[in-house]
Design goal:
Elements lengths: L1 E3 L2 E3 L5 H7 L2 H8 L21 E5 L5 E5 L6
Antiparallel strand pairs: 1-2, 3-4
């Protein structure tokens, strides 16, 4: 926290604050080539000529990224 003449500014952002504004799916869309759940897409982490990655929801309702070419989660 920073105090500017008795005005307190919180400089920390929590996961909960971020997720109250956007969804985890929005985050995946921003940082990968992901467009739609359970639909294959080309990796933006490595050279990928064939769609081999997917974003999906697990049985525990968690969002996961999987690269089937190298097994990366």
């Amino acid at each position: 926290m920073i105090d500017f003449n008795n005005v307190v500014v919180n400089t920390y952002v929590t996961k909960e604050e971020i997720l109250s504004k956007i969804t985890e799916i929005d985050i995946f869309k921003r940082y990968s080539n992901f467009v739609e759940l359970d639909k294959s897409f080309c990796s933006n982490i490595r050279l990928d000529k064939r769609p081999s990655c997917r974003v999906f929801i697990t049985q525990d309702n968690l969002i996961r990224y999987k690269d089937f070419a190298d097994g990366f989660y």
